[in-house]
Design a protein that fits this description.
Elements: H1 3-22, H2 25-32, H3 36-43, H4 46-56, H5 60-69, H6 75-92, H7 94-102, H8 111-134, H9 143-164, H10 173-188
Length: about 190
């Protein structure tokens, strides 16, 4: 890992462990194995490091690409593909997601960036649903509501597993996604 990456990783780990206030620039520098002045050269301040971490791991581009390039124009298959990829990306970015939820009040400068992620996903899904409707493969419905239902279904499953492991259900991710996507797709197809 290069210096920048070590600083970002150290920051994420310390915020998860000690919270935003507890992750001092001195502690971040020590954990990253750099001088504190190096942090300031690369990022100006602690908020700059956190912003860079969120920008680095934004998963919207890969989901947008999948929605646009990997669709088969089969609603159930496409929504399942999206859901599996979304779950994978949520888990890969779990620490930052948890930080954004736990430290929301302290990260007000990042709120726009944080809310842009689901908003952009919603817009991509709306575009996909409109295309499916134009192709005669989707019922007349409020596509924004359907896009949000898919996003929230996925995010809720991720949060449940992140917070409670399998204490709420023994369903595997695969079982959950296949069943919920099948019901949603059947309800939306002509």
């Amino acid at each position: 890992m290069d210096t920048r990456e070590r600083i970002l990783q150290a920051t994420i780990e310390l915020i998860m462990e000690k919270g935003f206030k507890g992750a001092t620039t001195r502690a971040i520098a020590q954990k990253a194995g750099v001088n504190e002045i190096t942090l300031f050269r690369h990022f100006n301040n602690k908020m700059g490091i956190v912003k860079a971490a969120f920008e680095k791991v934004s998963y919207v581009p890969s989901l947008s690409k999948a929605i646009k390039e990997n669709v088969e124009w089969d609603l159930e298959k496409d929504l399942l593909m999206f859901s599996k990829l979304y779950q994978q990306l949520l888990y890969e970015n779990r620490d930052l997601i948890m930080i954004s939820l736990k430290e929301a009040a302290l990260l007000s400068e990042l709120q726009q960036h944080i809310t842009d992620i689901p908003r952009q996903l919603k817009e991509n899904l709306i575009e996909y649903f409109h295309s499916m409707r134009e192709a005669g493969k989707l019922i007349e419905t409020n596509v924004e509501a359907q896009a949000l239902a898919l996003i929230w279904m996925n995010f809720s499953f991720f949060m449940s597993r992140s917070q409670h492991d399998n204490k709420i259900t023994d369903l595997t991710e695969e079982e959950f996604l296949k069943n919920t996507v099948r019901v949603l797709a059947r309800g939306l197809t002509l």
